Structure formats: structure tokens, C-alpha cells
Amino acid sequence: MIFRQLFERESSTYTYLIGCEETREAIFIDAVKSELDNYLKLLTELDLKLICVLDTHTHADHITAAGALRTVTGALTLLGEQANSFCVSKALHDGDEIKVGHILINALHTPGHTSDSYSFILKEQNQTYAFTGDTLLIRGTGRTDFQNGSAAQQYRSLMQKLLTLPDDTWVYPAHDYKGWTRSTIGEEKMHNPRLQVADEGAYVSLMNSLKLPSPALMDIAVPANKACGNS
């Protein structure tokens, strides 16, 4: 498997490139429009054919490169059905499978941060990878106070879905603001302060007590991202 973790500094967004070494097919997860030229250069350098662009959810802090990459490469764009996006090539459903050459990626609906939040799970050589978007961050979890977010739904997404993955599963979030690049499910169970609550009610109280400013680009990014990054 070909794997790259890329970073966009302004929004502290991680973008992931996953490719099949045999077929040279590849996908991007959470691509940022301002990085388009760098993505295209990397695809050329690695001799990869982009077949799909996935977004873990409708982002509020940056504009997706999904539409631009589709225009240039012909790749499909996928986003959760709950986004009600009119422009995507295909709406994602819980349990969908995405094939990248010989690599199989499973789409897992993990709402809470937003109603359309998905995580992407793959296994390669006995190692499980979880691309968790903003549902599970390293030592944190995504806010739940806009875009049909729900702290109760997020608690269930975490406890009933993501935290049931093997403890050695590598966790790759959509953002990190401290420079951390990777964690594991086991690490987060032990050390993530948001997960050390007694029950769902305590988690809801914790999340509802946060006083966070709205993302600076929210009014621009959300409608643009529902249009695949085309304003």
C-alpha cells in the first residue's frame, strides 16, 4: 500500500493519499482546495491514477478540493448521504465499500460532530487504519454544536463503533493542532480526556459546556463544500 499523510497549515487539516502498488489506483481523504497543485504533482511523481476523493464530512474550516480534483482527473467524489449534496458523484451510506485496486475501505457512519460524519476503515497486512475525521481526534473529539451535531450521537459513534476497533488500530484524524500525527484506539481509550466520562449524559454535559467560537470560514466553507468546493 502507498500511504502519505499531508498537512495544510492554515486549517491544520490532514489529507491522506492511499494507493494500490499493483494497480496504481489511488484516493484522497479530506483534500483541501488550496493544495490542489501539490496533490496533482504528487500523483504524477508517484505514477498514481486518482479514482476517488472522499470527505469525512462537510467541513466548516476549509474548502474541499473534491470538485477541482474531479474536474482535472475524472475521479469520483463521495460524501455522506446526510449532507444532501447535489454535486457528489455518489452519496455514501453506512457500510459502503470503496475499492482502490486491491485495497478495500469500509465507510462507517459516525455522526455527532456533524450529521454527515463518516470514518473510513481499512486493513492492510494485519494492521487496521481508522480515518476518523473530526469524530475522534488525538486526545480530543470534534465539537457538536453546529451542522446538526449531537453530543449524544457522537458518544454512541465513539463507544459503539470506533472504540470497538482493535486497540492497536492506528487513528488518523482530519485535524491536529499540536503537531501529533497518529494515535491508536488503545491510546485514546486510556488518555483522551473526553473519553473518561461515566456515561452518555456526562459526555453530553461536557460537550454542551464548551464555549467555542465559530470557524472563521464557516459561512463560506459549508455552502461551498456542499457544492464539492465550487462556490
TrEMBL record:
Gene3D superfamilies: Ribonuclease Z/Hydroxyacylglutathione hydrolase-like
CDD domains: POD-like_MBL-fold
Keyword set, alphabetical order: Hydrolase, Metal-binding
MF annotations from Gene Ontology: hydrolase activity
Annotated Metallo-beta-lactamase domain residues: 12-175
InterPro entries: Metallo-B-lactamas, Mito_Persulfide_Diox, POD-like_MBL-fold, RibonucZ/Hydroxyglut_hydro
Identification of the protein by name: Zn-dependent hydrolase
Lineage, top ranks: Bacteria, Pseudomonadati, Pseudomonadota, Gammaproteobacteria, Cellvibrionales
